[in-house]
Amino acid sequence: MSEKDTDEIMEIWLSENMLVHSFMSNDLIMKNKERTEQLIKKSKVFVCEKDNEILGFISLSGNYIDCLYVKSKSQRQGIGKALMKHCKNIFWSLMIKVYQQNENAVSFFEKQSFFVRDKMDNAETGETELFMEWIR
């Protein structure tokens, strides 16, 4: 990722976040946008591009996955899987928190050999989150 990619990445984050977290209010998602942008600027971010368009990205703080999003039009084309494979080649373990209601994400990470290590309620949203981990 380069500095100029931040706006495009945040557009993907916002639009896909609203789609996959329809159980959360848009106000709460917007409230977290600035915090997420600052986090992404400090994180290691890998992107998948085609014809100078970012189709998806993964953001990591150490081996913790902060975000993994693929544009809706580009989903189910192996982009998320390729981003995960790249990270699995770098790290011995990866961790992420996923909302339990986001069944597609839970299923995706289970297919990537992640397992549920813990389950907790998110204080801000009141929703249940799964703490998932992959170990080589």
What characteristics describe this protein?
3-stranded antiparallel β-sheet; 136 residues; single chain; 6 strands; alpha+beta; 33% strand; globular; Aminopeptidase
Structure commentary:
By secondary structure, this protein is an alpha+beta fold. It has one domain: Aminopeptidase. The chain is 39% helix and 33% strand. It contains four helices and six strands. It has helices at residues 6-20, 26-42, 79-90, 103-111; strands at 44-50, 53-61, 64-70, 93-99, 115-121, 128-135. Strands 1-2-3 form a three-stranded antiparallel β-sheet, with helices on both faces. The protein has a three-stranded antiparallel β-sheet with strand order 4-6-5, covered by helices on one side. The radius of gyration is 14 Å and the shape is globular. The model has no long low-confidence stretch (mean pLDDT 90).
Summarize the structure.
With 136 residues, the chain is an alpha+beta fold.
Structural class: alpha+beta
What name is given to the CATH topology?
Aminopeptidase
CATH architecture grouping: 3-Layer(aba) Sandwich
Radius of gyration: 14 Å
Biggest sheet features: 3 strands, antiparallel
**Termini Cα gap:** 25 Å
Query: In the CATH hierarchy, what is the superfamily?
Result: Gcn5-related N-acetyltransferase (GNAT)
What would CATH call the class? Alpha Beta
Low-confidence stretches: none
The number of helical runs is: 4
Average pLDDT, all residues: 90
Helix share, percent: 25-40%
Shape: globular
Spatial ordering of strands, largest sheet:
1-2-3
Number of strands: 6
| Helix-strand sequence | HHEEEHEHEE
Number of domains: 1
Task: Give the amount of beta strand, in percent.
Answer: 25-35%
